[in-house]
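Objective 1b. Sequence-to-structure analysis of Nitrogen regulatory protein P-II.
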Amino acid sequence: MADKRQTKSSVRAGGIANVLGGTPIANMLGMRQGGKLPNRVKLLVSIVNKNDIERLKEVIDDCSVSLTVAFAGTGTAHSQVLDYLGIGETEKTVAFSLIPESDEDLIMREIRTKISLYLVGRGISFTVPLTGISEIVANGITGAASEKAVDGSKIMTSETRQYDLIIAAVAAGFVDEAMEAARGAGAAGGTIIHAHALNNTKAEQFIGVSLLEERDLLLILTKREGKLPIMQALFDSVGLKTQAGGIIFSLPVDKTAGISASDEVAAEEANQ
């Protein structure tokens, strides 16, 4: 049981499984040299043109099994540049899909080819590691690929990851200012999602700032070396101490599709 990442001992009250499980560090390091690991669930984020969303789901399901939710977004990039999260002021659809890690590379290859993410403006997909998930969902998704294992040598680490996803949640009306600040720090573009805050009175008492209910989320995918300058620019321009009341954070990104071919090749070589 000690060499599994999803074990009964890792399940908490309420049926939540720790996807890193109880694997000892020594075993993990050994598996990085080419050993096999049990399957786990990862989050696939896809930002595509509105008309491509149904096809995207078909492609994923042809490769594997997934649990997907989708919502509307808007692209923000200048038409002259490659927008890591879509091109231009166009309608986008953002999809969150839970997929088995064993099928991650296949899904990314098929999306890149069949949704034509190698073409400028078609969108992007990337995967994000999870640290916990409902046990029922995890068992269902990985159970569909129960005969497959994960090549430990291909697991992304903090040393091999090359991209991060920056998320800025700002008061409605300030997202253009946020994007301008991010561009000034090197961001190529982003995707906007309209949202609203849910009764954050308790948290507001601790952080000392009142958060407006109507908010916009700005998603920016950036190379790791560009993350801190962009986040600092966002903090200075639309952070908590400004009228925008922005909350800025980042998430690690593993595999990508839809970035320039040279960048994707470099990322794959770095993980070999």
